[in-house]
Amino acid sequence: MKPEIKPEEVKRLRDMTGCGMMDCKRALQDAKGNFEEAIELLRKRGIAKAEKKAVRPTEHGAIASYIHPGSRIGVLLELKCETDFVASNEVFLRLAKDLCMQVAAMKPLAVDRASIPAETIERERRIMMESEDIKSKPENVRAKIVEGRLVKFFQMAALLEQPFIKNDKVTVEDHIKETAGKLGENIRGSRFVRYELGEVM
């Protein structure tokens, strides 16, 4: 017997993916109410539309700023969308502010893992390979352990892969996609700068 799914849960999944209500309901039932699994099922079935939105051009947007209480940390962030109409929308601007707060609190190195400099990744890999606990492992498993740790590194270093500070059950990327679903446009965080008093750039 399939679990009962509440209408508000179906609507939330629809907002996140842009899929039809019945598709979302079936996915949630098959995933026993687990949102992450439901999204994965929709993607596997080729139904999720968030990926299609992601290829549409983003030529509008806003630059948001945030100064943390105490005035020791500040963030400037560029968030892009498809139209001026959405760029001035309260939901879009709130997302931009939330992302600024995320950057201030979580100190990501880049928007996504592809934007992290190769030398930074190699330095992390080298440090991990030379750590005492890795050296004590058999040679044939060291690389696998390091790759697993690098995944965790990316989950903190890349803004899109970080747990969202206002709901750590979803990533920042999932939260952006949920907002994109509500507004019906592609939304993309393109760059940011984080300043901390006394920190050398």
What form results from the Cα inertia axes?
A: flat
Q: What is the structural class?
A: alpha+beta
Widest sheet: strand ordering: 1-2-5
Q: Whole-Å distance between the termini?
A: 58 Å
Taking the sheet with the most strands, its summary is:
3 strands, antiparallel
Query: Under the CATH scheme, which architecture of the largest domain would be assigned?
Result: 2-Layer Sandwich
Number of helices: 10
Per the CATH scheme, the topology name of the largest domain is Tetrahydropterin Synthase, Chain A
The string of secondary-structure elements, in order, is HHHHEEHHHHHEEHE
Question: What is the helix fraction of residues, given as a range?
Answer: 40-55%
**Number of structural units classed as domains:** 3
Portion in strands: 15-25%
Describe the structure.
The protein is α+β, with helices and mostly antiparallel strands and 201 residues long. The chain folds into three domains: 7-48, Helicase, Ruva Protein, domain 3; 60-111 and 158-196, Elongation factor Ts, dimerisation domain (Tetrahydropterin Synthase, Chain A, 2-Layer Sandwich), CATH 3.30.479; 117-157, Orthogonal Bundle (GTP Cyclohydrolase I, Chain A, domain 1), CATH 1.10.286. 51% of the residues lie in helices and 16% in strands. It is built from ten helices and five strands, in the order H-H-H-H-E-E-H-H-H-H-H-E-E-H-E. It has helices spanning 7-17, 21-30, 35-44, 50-53, 84-87, 90-106, 118-129, 132-135, 139-157, 172-183; strands spanning 60-67, 73-81, 163-164, 167-171, 188-196. The strands form two sheets. The chain has a three-stranded antiparallel beta sheet with strand order 1-2-5. A hairpin with a 2-residue loop joins strand 3 (163-164) and strand 4 (167-171). Helix 7 packs across helix 9. The radius of gyration is 19 Å and the shape is flat.
